Amino acid sequence: MSEPEELPQREQRESTKKKKKAKRSVKKKKEQREGEEQEEQVEFEQEVQSVNECVVLHGIFKLGKKSHDVLLTRTKLTWTPIIPENPTGETGVPQSGEVLLQDIFAVKVKRRRAAGQESGGPVLGVALFWCRRKGRRLEEDTLHLHNASSEHTHTWYNTLKELLTGFSSRPTYLKVFINPSSHKKEAVHIYRDHVAPLFKMADIRTDITVTERKGHALSVMKECKLDEYDGVVCVGGDGSVAELCHALVLRAQLDADSPEKPVRATLPLGIIPAGSTDVVSCSVHGVRDPVTAALHIVLGHLQQVDMCSFSSHGQLVRFGFSAMFGFGGRSLARAEKKRWMPSSRRREYALVKTLARLRPEDCQLSFLSARKSNSNLFVQRDKDQDQDQDPESEGEESWVTNQGLYLSISIMSIPCLSPHAPQGLAPNTSLANGSAALIAVGNTSRSEFIKHLKRYSSSTGQFNFSFVETHVVSAVKIRPCSLIGCSEDESEEEGDSKTTPFIHTEGTTFPWNIDGELVEIANEVLIRVHPRLITLYGEEVEEAESSVSCSCI
Known about the structure:
Elements (H helix, E strand, L loop, with lengths): L2 H51 L3 E7 L2 E7 L3 E6 L15 E4 L3 E8 L11 E12 L2 E10 L3 H15 L8 E6 L8 H15 L3 E6 L5 H8 L7 E6 L1 H19 L12 E5 L5 H7 L4 H9 L3 E11 L2 E6 L1 E5 H10 L6 H14 L4 E9 L30 E13 L23 E7 L3 H9 L13 E13 L29 E5 L2 E5 L3 E13 L16
């Protein structure tokens, strides 16, 4: 090859080498820059951690009868007993302890006072009130740090108070609604004896309204100035909770001037259980315990929760967490007619009576899957799913429609835990996954349906029946097929549930169980899931504490 021909090839090779070298250089610089950024991030995190773990105060206090070396950082308080040197040279292992600041909800100065003395007195030390976990329950505990020095004690007191103010989610002023008629009419007693002392200890101010009628809380919420409060508290059962949840979202819509689209509630809601089942409370606390519920509020444990909107013919009926059509609605309708009975007997009576007259509903069921592929409740949820997606924006999804006979249809955006169903009526949904569980129980024999119901109180298997469908949905439409004929009240014969559906007169309303409240609706109902529409004081719970059982079936 001649020299003139080799020259362009040599230049081309050199150019290629230069390009590769430049690419390697750029890649190396990029990797170096990324490495430096990672190192800076690690250094920043270590710096934050070191700041948090930096000793803020160091002092000596007596815990019980022994002196302890006490250290306070921005995240925790630790204590180690001071062990004097042993002449024999033997030293024991000191039993140290610690409590996280996030678990401390109050700090007070201890003083010695004579009988009848209301103020003053010599300083004894500092008392820390903190929350101890015992299973699903939260319990109040106290740590006494004794030191007779007034200056030393007040330094610790002021520093601890300042650190505790850093927990911004903790409320300082609450609007409290108490339903004195809920369950055994114990709501006022529960609040006064178990909740009010904790609020007072945590320096939480309250504005209390004792409701006088159904809808009272809703009317107050529409008028009051919510910007004065840090949260709302409901002392009552599921009916009171449903009313206040609906009121909070409705008020947010009014304030945002958004009548068409639901708006996220601005204030969190705390629930003090005082009802017969307390489904929503159990779903965020795991136990029906007023102290546990109050401590979740005091400590500012916030949990975002999905809600559903229920509308008929374009008109909003209400917001809620769950709805039952068919067996659940008819059972509640019967129970409401026996309000003079004790709640447990009334519930069992309605259950047995509805089972005795068990018949399916003839209706058209349509649903919009929460994901593109139809999936069962037992399929592992996609963790990368966009949980803030609005179901109304899923216009490209196609509705799945079935028509037939159904004994029960349930739509639940929360697990609906309760002592009767520890793992919930919808055990494989969660509080804020942006979807709801649709459980459709098709027509079957009474004995098979009872087997299905009984399995809710056990661990699993309530959906392992051929007549039970489960879907993860973002929207559901239920359209009852009204036919000319006799109503349920006119028909006293039991009939065969496999062949005889309920026959309704034209214009008849259908009973719905929405969050434990009876709602009569005559037309098609559209249910849409709205992700994280409300915030409740509590946390995600997998299973509720079981303490009761139903012996009626």
